[in-house]
Backbone:
């Protein structure tokens, strides 16, 4: 269930100019997830149904947006930076969708919704949420997946 | 769809004549023809065309390069590739630069008509969605609240005209919408409002915040689901479906409303205000 997403991260991020993408631990969380920073969620419908949530802290989000915009400095999480992060979530989830389809599983994805703040308590549609952590050039990227 | 203004780009005078003949037979107007890339780019800058047919081999470049240049200047130009060459790689390259459809020469009348219809049917369908989604979501949330909460329900759809972000009142629920055009719906309210509504619906004052979260999840699910059903009823090919809800709760959450077509509402009820945002993006895979 998590493999199409982790493969998407290790495939897509280097193409966007990130040097070192390392997968850290995969955990299963049963309780609510607490997140601070930028949280982007996308809906998934098809042979599998659920949601995926990407979490990055605010500084990391600005760095990622900056690298995605060819190194343009990002001081504030402005519209351009938010748009870059939404696009990133789109690319990763669409790529995961292609990975699913290679296994004969068809899924479609929704438009991303981006939120930011501190101590955001997140509840997804499943009791068991699979979380994968990545180190992307020193930035922590977390992916939480609730799929049936 | 009506009569379209079309430019033909093709290095062969014979092909231009054949295409012109077919397009005019279908009631379209061929307002420009171009035999090379340079001229096509210049003409595309100077005029507006509903559709451009593009050969892949041109004397001073190729159709991919030419389309890329044209689309740089007019992002929403619709380009159909019509070429004798057609293989996976060239189709992929064409798709990547934004060409909408690929036809192989020799093209027959039916094939050409069907491809153009498909292309513009998408446009008309999006217009139907654009013109009706607001009413569908308003009707959906109004009837839910009227039925479950009762009292006065007032939808203010002018309060938040162009805000790009919204501060959450405490609990935010997002639902993804998937279909011919994908989208999403966000409903946001304070914990008090969610608790008040839960108490009222369950007719029991002893409600926990977890029950209130379960309520607002289901509320959003029903509102988005009913609105999508209403829209699917207008045209089955929308095929809209909703993903399960994701709930965000906190004192300091900003919701980014996105850069696609969307609309925000404040719904005033006796038990507190509800914020709703719904929207759809235009992009769709026209090659499907």
Residues:
């Amino acid at each position: 269930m998590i493999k199409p997403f982790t493969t998407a991260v290790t495939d897509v991020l280097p193409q966007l100019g990130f040097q070192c993408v390392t997968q850290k631990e995969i955990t299963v969380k049963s309780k609510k997830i607490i997140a601070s920073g930028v949280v982007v969620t996308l809906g998934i419908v098809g042979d599998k149904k659920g949601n995926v949530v990407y979490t990055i802290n605010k500084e990391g989000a600005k760095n990622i947006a900056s690298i995605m915009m060819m190194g343009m400095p990002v001081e504030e999480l402005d519209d351009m930076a938010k748009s870059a992060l939404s696009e990133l979530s789109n690319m990763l989830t669409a790529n995961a969708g292609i990975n699913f389809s290679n296994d004969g599983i068809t899924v479609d994805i929704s438009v991303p919704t981006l939120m930011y703040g501190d101590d955001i308590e997140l509840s997804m549609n499943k009791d068991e949420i699979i979380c994968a952590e990545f180190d992307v050039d020193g930035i922590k990227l977390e992916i939480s997946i609730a799929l049936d | 769809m009506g009569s379209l203004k079309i430019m033909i780009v093709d290095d062969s005078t014979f092909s231009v004549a054949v295409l012109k003949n077919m397009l005019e037979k279908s009631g379209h107007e061929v307002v420009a023809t171009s035999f090379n890339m340079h001229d096509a780019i210049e003409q595309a800058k100077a005029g507006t065309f509903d559709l451009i047919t593009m050969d892949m081999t041109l004397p001073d470049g190729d159709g991919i390069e030419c389309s890329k240049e044209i689309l740089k200047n007019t992002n929403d130009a619709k380009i159909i590739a019509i070429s004798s060459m057609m293989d996976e790689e060239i189709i992929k390259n064409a798709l990547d630069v934004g060409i909408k459809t690929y036809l192989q020469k020799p093209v027959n009348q039916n094939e050409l008509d069907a491809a153009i219809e498909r292309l513009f049917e998408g446009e008309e369908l999006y217009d139907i969605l654009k013109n009706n989604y607001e009413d569908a979501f308003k009707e959906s949330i109004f009837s839910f609240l009227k039925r479950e909460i009762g009292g006065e329900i007032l939808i203010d759809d002018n309060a938040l005209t162009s805000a790009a972000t919204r501060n959450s009142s405490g609990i935010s629920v997002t639902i993804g919408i998937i279909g011919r055009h994908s989208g999403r719906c966000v409903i946001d309210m304070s914990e008090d409002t969610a608790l008040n509504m839960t108490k009222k619906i369950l007719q029991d004052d002893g409600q926990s915040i977890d029950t209130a979260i379960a309520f607002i999840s289901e509320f959003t699910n029903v509102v988005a689901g009913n609105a999508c059903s209403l829209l699917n009823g207008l045209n089955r090919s929308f095929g809209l479906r909703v993903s399960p809800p994701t709930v965000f709760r906190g004192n300091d959450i900003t919701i980014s409303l996105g850069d696609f077509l969307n609309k925000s509402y404040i719904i005033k009820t006796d038990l507190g205000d509800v914020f709703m945002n719904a929207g759809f993006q235009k992009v769709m895979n026209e090659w499907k």
